[in-house]
Amino acid sequence: MRKIYGRNIHIFFKAHRERILIRARLMPLWWLLPVVMLCSSALCGVLVKLGGPRFLDQPVARSAHSHATPRGGGAGVVFAFFLFVVTLHTTGHLTSVQLWVLSCAIPIAMAGFVDDLRPLPVRIRLPLHLAAAIVALVLLGPVPEPFFSGWLLLPLWFQSLLLMLALVWLLNLYNFMDGIDTLAAGQALFVAGIAGVMLWLQGDAIAWVCAGLAAAIVGFMVWNLPPAKLFLGDVGSTFLGFVLGLIALLTHFSGALSVWVWVLLMGAFIADTTCTLLVRTVRGLSVTQGHSTHAYQHLARRWGSHTKVSLVMTVINVVWLLPLAWMAHRHPHYGVGLSISGIVPLMIMAALVGAGNEQDTE
């Protein structure tokens, strides 16, 4: 019996040797995660104490808060996250290309930081966003096939164009959805955390990028719990959307995780924003002016609680989207179909809540 048991251990180690060695090599990085969290939280605390009047988000008619609150907390997330990313590179856990791809999110954060101080016109922001997306895609190289799970074959240049637009859409999507306490940060934490676990199970070093991002977000969320003492601001919301898109592409291009896994993990935000903009377009309402007609905003007003909305979003993520994302991970050739099946019902739910309508519907 002892020989059989020993032989089984040997067979298991031999089969999983590479993954076990990778995980063992990365284990010393665990102690850095609390440092990332504390660094992010400390920087956010400085912004709360010393931000000054230029960082105050004054409530307006469409705001979900009633008191002036400091914004720009995303700066702490960005700084702490990139300290960790640079450490990963210097210790040999990230390649130079991966580092440069992730660094394309820095100009996005910088533009967001300036926008938090003084609004930047679209004619400045949009070209910068597009340029950052183009540079990232050039660094990544040709789009791997099959991108659409083999269902649809498109020219490589057209796939690259779609990915460029998707990256810009993601950063705007997170900006749109950052309207109540903890929602955008909590969603990013869910996406980074679940993707990190999936990558960890494969022994992929990008799992540590996800872990570092999650730790930085937790440090910020200490200040963002209702009633929030600090908001992400454009520096945080646009950065989170863009950097999650970059991480998704890194894993898709390497073959570690299909991009459709990420689409499903972000499905709640994608459904709400897409439904809201479609309804506003059909009704002839502006999609560029600020508004508060997203489904989550209707629910926050109806329930009078940010916490309840965030909890509902968490339940949707865990009960509905997570199982579908896991299926897309295990069966990538069904990724497109699973994404449609997961997001369309959420869009219908958002429409029933009143997404895109100026008036709340009961």
Shape: globular
**What Rg do the Cα atoms give?**
21 Å
Distance between the termini: 67 Å
- The helix fraction, in percent, is over 70%
Question: What is the N-to-C order of secondary-structure elements (H for helix, E for strand)?
Answer: HHHEEHHHHHHHHHHHHH
Largest sheet, spatial ordering of strands: 1-2
Low-pLDDT runs: none
What's the number of structural domains? 2
Mean pLDDT: 89
Tally of DSSP helical segments? 16
Which characteristics define this entry?
2 strands; 2 domains; two-stranded antiparallel sheet; globular; mainly alpha; 16 helices
Question: Helices and strands in order, then pairings?
Answer:
Elements: H1 2-15, H2 17-26, H3 32-50, E1 56-57, E2 69-70, H4 74-90, H5 96-103, H6 105-117, H7 122-140, H8 156-176, H9 183-201, H10 206-224, H11 233-254, H12 259-265, H13 267-282, H14 295-303, H15 306-330, H16 335-353
Antiparallel strand pairs: 1-2
Write a structural description.
Helix content is 71%, strand content 1%. The chain has 362 residues and is mainly alpha-helical. It has two domains: 25-257, no CATH class; 258-362, no CATH class. Strands 1-2 form a two-stranded antiparallel sheet. It is globular and about 50 Å long.
What's this model, at a glance?
The relative contact order is 0.13. The protein has 362 residues and is mainly alpha-helical.
